[in-house]
Here is the input.
Amino acid sequence: MLAIVATAYAQQTPAQKPLRLKFQYTLDSGVVELGKEIESERGARKFRFTKIKQYVSNIALYLASRCVWRDSGGFYLVDAEDAASCQIAFNYPSNLVFDEISLVFGIDSTTHAAGVMGGALDPLNGMYWSWQSGYINLKIEGEMLDQQKSTALEYHIGGLGTAHEKRFGLAPGEDLTLDCDLNPLLEQALSANKTHLMSPGKQAIALSLAWMQSVRKQP
Amino acid sequence: MKIRILMLLGMPIALLFAFHSRKPLVFWPKQVYSFQHEAGFKERVELGHLLFYDPVLSADSSVSCASCHLQYTAFAHVDHALSHGIHDSIGNRNAPALMNLAWHRELMWDGAIHHLDMQSLAPISHPAEMGSSIQEVVGKLNRSRKYAGAFYKAFGDSLASGEFVLKSISRFLTTLVSNRSKYDSVMNGTSVFTAQQKSGYEIFRKHCNSCHTEPLFTSLKYEDNGLPLNPRLNDLGRYSITQNTADSSRFKIPTLRNITYSYPYMHDGRFNSLGEVLNHYEKGMVQRKGMQKALKHNITLSSVQKVDLVAFLLTLNDKHFLFNPELGFPKNN
Here is the structure.
């Protein structure tokens, strides 16, 4: 009897294939490890990062620019401190054909304006502003080091206009590793003498766009 | 037979009145937040009620929400112009009266908070108010286990989370409804204004209603009412949120319900009496670009008109709300 039920279930549920999405935080080509010094190649600056977190949401697969599958998981918090959170795994129907994967880096405006939620979106995760409503989409904290002094760095990028969709070419059966290079964002912020940015607005939007330039598919 | 017919006719009318006097007036706008139908609403309100009165929410467990939002003063704070927090800290805004919040989409004097669920995060985290964090609060609640049963009843999980804490408090806040003042009974047709109150109501309708719009007695908008800038606070209100110069010196219009209980007045608590407020509109306003149309000119009232206006404002006091034990310090805390 159980065998019959199992066979019937197997016939109804299409076979699934796993897809693993890995995020790696880098500075130029060097991999960032929290709490450890790292030197940039281009600017010859030294940094030590203590916190790097970002939201990723609305993962979908596309074929010829048409959405063919959407992840039901919703929202993911990719936290450099938690290795498990830097890998997102999900299954898609094994017969699915696609050529791109789409991710939203941040929280969409509807969710942004909704009430409190649990899981990855729980304010407990420290990614929600308390003084003003809004999710922090990307949090980078640490310090810039030189021989004389250490300068604290604190970037809390969030609010409306700071969540962006980005697509990457991807074939069935392939996994995806994304390098998230901190350097373009830091270059842009530091060239404007901005060591702290913790409010929404134009500067946050500009830095969120710099962040989008730095997220690349690992060859 | 006649008596029976009269009884049959009379009962529905009596029921109609009984029903009517408890419900918000028909012309009240639709609530922005309607949580009443969600599963566990009653239990969430009960939990939120306990948390609202519990100083565990502050860093040193000395200050609760109710410390600055006392029921008897319409959930405002009459002791201080600016909020009073842990270690005798003084904040930078007057603790506003809390009522009818289910009709307010945005909260705070500058509208910084755009959902009621998120409101309590601000005072919990403000260093001059509760000086804590939602992480610290959840940690304390889970360590004490005092609330495990209440969280289980409300959410089916005995462990507190940020979501559960904030949801409980926001559900409780929606129960702070003030709609049983004399003004409400007049509007319901169960009472009448005195001649003086009626005169005051007419003055109110002419000079005040565009900002303090009935029945909430706030249009929920942000306006510049010509207050000279307080140089110590340098508070530009809504501008700090939108960065739009048109919003400079605009603050959310407060409700006038229970107004005589909820002094001091204005975002910085600069006025202690209604007389001072009326004097401001008569001769204290600083005219600035972008001010509310109704305030382009001073509002000059005779002393009799002022007395009549205050007589009307007194009809907005709702003693049922102010002294309702269901909203007071929880019995089993």
Notes: The first strand of chain A starts at residue 16 and ends at 27. The helical segments of chain A are 2-12, 109-113, 183-191, 202-214. Residues 24-217 of chain A form one domain. Chain A touches chain B through 18 residues (CB under 8 Å).
